[in-house]
Design a protein that fits this description.
The chain is α+β, with helices and mostly antiparallel strands. Helix content is 43%, strand content 16%. It has a four-stranded antiparallel sheet, covered by helices on one side.
């Protein structure tokens, strides 16, 4: 009897025990892999938001520079070359920045100007509005991915051209990244 008990203890695991262990391992692995996919989506959304915020800040700082050069240095050529009005007044409609080098206002925002907008088609659209209050103007810059279904058209009743992957291979990945909207408000002395 002792020999039989010793033989039974040396036999190893049964097939059912192995299947139960593999099932427990599979359940644990599914949970871990879901955490990795969620982390990837969160990372893509954060990268998109950071990129959009950076572009909004660049637009505001560029507008500040243009008005500073004119006010302090008496240099109005930068402002006129930029196509920026002499006085920041309240806008009734959003002012859209160029989307590609074919846009009319490209000379200022593109490579020949202050390098805020790159030469190829962008994965986002940029527009700003101005609210003038006394000697200051509050500029609100909004940046949103081109795939965003909530993108405001340039004018009432106007439609934005459709964007296809062939037109713009640089796009934000992930569903959460496409609906990001960054609004950046700053004060500029007029």
């Amino acid at each position: 009897m002792k020999a039989r008990l010793a033989l039974r203890n040396r036999r190893g695991s049964s097939f059912v025990e192995i299947l139960v262990a593999l099932a427990i391992l599979a359940v644990l692995m599914v949970g871990i892999l879901q955490m990795f996919s969620l982390a990837l989506l969160t990372n893509l959304g954060s990268a998109a938001r950071t990129d959009l915020l950076y572009k909004a800040q660049q637009v505001v700082e560029n507008l500040r520079l243009v008005y500073y050069l004119e006010r302090k240095e008496g240099n109005s050529t930068a402002r006129t070359a930029a196509g920026v009005p002499a006085i920041l007044t309240t806008t009734t409609a959003p002012v859209f920045l160029p989307y590609s080098s074919g846009d009319a206002s490209w000379a200022h925002w593109g490579p020949a100007g202050f390098n805020i907008v790159e030469a190829e088609r962008l994965p986002y659209r940029i527009y700003y509005t101005v609210e003038a209050v006394g000697s200051a103007a509050f500029v609100t810059v909004t940046v949103t991915p081109v795939d965003n279904p909530n993108l405001v058209p340039p004018a009432t009743g106007a439609t934005l051209p459709a964007v296809t992957p062939a037109d713009n291979p640089r796009r934000f990945l992930g569903l959460g990244s496409k609906v990001k909207i960054v609004t950046y408000t700053a004060q500029i002395v007029r």
